[in-house]
Specification:
The protein has helices at 3-30, 37-55, 58-66, 74-92, 95-118, 121-143, 148-156, 162-185, 198-211, 247-266, 282-296, 300-314, 322-329, 343-362, 370-382, 408-427, 431-435, 441-450, 460-468, 475-489; strands at residues 221-223, 229-232, 235-240. The chain is mostly helical. It has two domains: 3-146, no CATH class; 162-489, Neurolysin, domain 3 (Orthogonal Bundle), CATH 1.10.1370.30. Strands 1-3-2 form a three-stranded mixed beta sheet. The radius of gyration is 22 Å and the shape is globular. The N and C termini lie far apart (65 Å). The relative contact order is 0.12. The mean pLDDT is 96. One of its GO terms (biological process) is proteolysis. This is Metal-dependent carboxypeptidase. It holds the Pfam family Peptidase_M32.
Length: 491
């Protein structure tokens, strides 16, 4: 075998072990007994030690030295781009630090969930201080004298920096704030009333997953505190959550996670368990979940179909017709929770987190001051006070897991989704007629062909350029939002 073949065989085994570690994380958030948390932390640390050792194995370095990338085809060169980057990154992080991060974040996740349930920030602060300190060490090792937060962003969105993201967010904020102000000043849509039984919600949410192309033969739908998608290739699992007075929480969390899962399930099987066999970045990943959830799932055409489905399942639920339902689904309203935010305000939630975690990583904000900083910033941005920690700094799981640099990719995903939606609408001019019948297949097939099947073949920006045919900017997203909500609220 050639050095390339040897390296790819070795990498395939490492990737498979990484999938096993990921499944431990899935189990921890869905089915693991609460009393197993301490042992699970040790198990996660052990897996990380094994993975780290394989990633820095001297044979990897020798194979990389022997391989001439120029002699490979486009796929081989793309594989090497990922392997070389992963190897260089892993070599910078000491094995004991990587294992300690895995151990502490596994323990931190359980403590976060309990603190959130108890509305007790103080109970979470000590372990979050550990997580932040460890992630700073990791960031400093990766940055090698450069910007620590940029090094963290690079884990989730290669080619992107905090300065570029900050400039984009600063340009977006005034138009989003103006749109929000106009919508909140207009007449509010009819709100859902009544009770929506959990069993009926889960039955319909599985139908929604199927309608958006989720392959249940290679996945499953479960419940979790914080909805997420996990896995790749032939085993891609999603979670959702239910609230008896708010079925949209369940339905749109499911559609969102199906977007992530469809990306992983749609990647060319030839890339299975290789570096190309997963989403290329979190921003691109989020573009799929957001276009599924919003531009498709919250469109006037699709909500007309969903209205009929809900009437069949729940009977009369207080919304008169499909037009009123479309407005209800897309209502702009005050709220605290990022995952429940409307399209207009969602990115403002991300901008808050981006600035706070950037300050945490720079050492400009102490963990003990995080709750006060969050509450002050939220009131300044949204105009009302946070009422409890689970609606404030304890609402998201990300920081407990050490996922610093992840949050800005949510807004970047919205920007990418805006570009993709513009191109999709040009390519499929009769899309609304299909969505009105509950048929998303042409839209999802377009996304699969133009973006999903390629996995990590291209860089993130080139992935969006290739799929959309345009240079990624925030303009298509902002134009879409202003057009849609301007019409909904008569602005």
């Amino acid at each position: 075998m050639s050095a390339y073949d040897d390296l790819m065989a070795f990498t395939k085994t490492t990737t498979a072990l990484g999938q096993v570690a990921g499944r431990l994380g899935w189990d921890q958030e869905t089915m693991m007994p609460r009393g197993a948390a301490e042992q699970r932390a040790e198990e996660m640390a052990a897996m990380e030690e094994v993975l780290h050792a394989r990633r820095v194995d001297v044979r990897v370095g020798a194979w990389l030295d022997e391989i001439e990338d120029a002699s490979l085809d486009d796929v081989g060169q793309a594989q090497m781009r990922h392997v070389r980057k992963s190897y260089a990154r892993t070599m910078k992080v000491p094995a004991d630090l990587a294992a300690e991060i895995a151990k502490v974040t596994s323990r931190s996740q359980g403590l976060w969930a309990q603190a959130r349930a108890d509305e007790d920030v103080a109970a979470f602060v000590p372990v979050l201080e550990e997580v932040v300190a460890l992630k700073r060490q990791e960031g400093q090792a990766l940055a090698e004298g450069g910007d620590v937060y940029d090094a963290m962003i690079d884990d989730y969105e290669p080619e992107m920096t905090a300065a570029e993201l900050g400039a984009m967010f600063d340009a977006m904020r005034p138009r989003l704030v103006a749109l929000r102000s106009g919508a909140l000043a207009a007449e509010a849509p009819v709100a859902l009333t009544g009770t929506f039984p959990e069993g009926a919600q889960m039955k319909l949410t599985r139908e929604l997953a199927r309608a958006f192309g989720y392959d249940s033969k290679h996945g499953r739908v479960d419940k979790a505190v914080h909805p997420f998608s996990s896995g790749s290739g032939l085993d891609v699992r999603i979670t959702t959550r239910t609230a008896e007075h708010d079925p949209f929480n369940c339905f749109y969390s499911t559609i969102h996670e199906v977007g992530h899962a469809a990306y992983e399930q749609g990647i060319d099987r030839d890339y299975l368990l290789t570096p190309l066999g997963q989403g290329v970045s979190m921003g691109v990943h989020e573009s799929q979940s957001r276009i599924y959830e919003n531009q498709i799932g919250r469109s006037e055409a699709f909500t007309g179909w969903l209205f009929g489905q809900m009437k069949d399942v729940f009977g009369d639920f207080g919304v008169a017709d499909a037009d009123a339902f479309y407005k209800t689904v897309n209502g702009v309203h005050q709220g605290y929770i990022r995952t429940e935010a409307d399209e207009v305000q969602y990115n403002l939630h991300i901008m808050l987190r981006f600035d706070l975690e950037r300050a945490l990583m720079a050492g400009d904000l102490a963990v003990g001051d995080l709750e006060a900083a969050w509450n002050d910033r939220f009131e300044a941005d949204f105009g009302y006070a946070v009422d409890k920690p689970s609606n404030g700094c304890l609402q998201d799981v990300h920081w407990s897991l050490g996922l610093f640099g992840y949050f800005p990719t949510y807004s970047l995903g919205n920007v990418y989704a805006g570009c993709l939606n513009e191109s999709l609408r040009r390519a499929v001019p009769d899309l609304d007629a299909q969505l009105a019948a509950g048929d998303t297949s042409v839209a999802t097939a377009w996304l699969r062909e133009n973006l999903q099947r390629h996995g990590g073949l291209r860089t993130p920006l080139d992935t969006i350029r290739h799929a959309s045919g345009i240079e990624p900017t925030s303009e298509p997203l902002l134009t879409y939002l202003e057009t849609k909500f301007g019409a909904l609220y008569g602005l």
